Amino acid sequence: MALSSLQPRLVHGGFSLPTAVTPRPRQRNVQTTALFSFLKLGSKTATKPKYETVIPETSYAIPAVLLGGAGLTQVTTSNTALAAGLGLLGAFLAVQASRVKFVFDEDALEVLTGKDEEESENAFVGGRNRWSYDSIINWEFWFPSFPILVYFKEDQTRPEGQIHFFPVLFNGKQLFEVMSERFNKPESD
Which InterPro entries does the UniProt record give (predicted)? Predict the structure, then answer.
């Protein structure tokens, strides 16, 4: 008997063709999850936060103007009381600019104080100085070209919310851009 007669044959159209008999390769347990993970449509992936955390840069422009105005007032008018008042206000704001940080995180605006940027408590009504972006119902800059003062009203502090004013001790343009992006549109627009 010939060896070819022992091989299995594939019958096709009335005649038979020899088929190759090859041993099956061993199945290897290969993980393909990394290669084909993009095909998993319902899988959980790390989502990018809605907003990046931003801490506006400190600016000493207003304290410098006040301290310069104090010196100029003393030299030109010899009005010591006015010069002292401007100087004290300028010095106070310079110290505050070095201590206070506004942190705009993914969900809220928070005021941190001190070198270690500790959470602060609201001195007037108690509670944490942190307001969610949704709670800010109005805000405004005075004066847009050279911001000196910022106002915002929130409805998170009980019972009816609270109005907040603060001097612009930060990069005014950066502060305005972050507030425009995350707060409701100001009424003045």
Answer: DUF3119
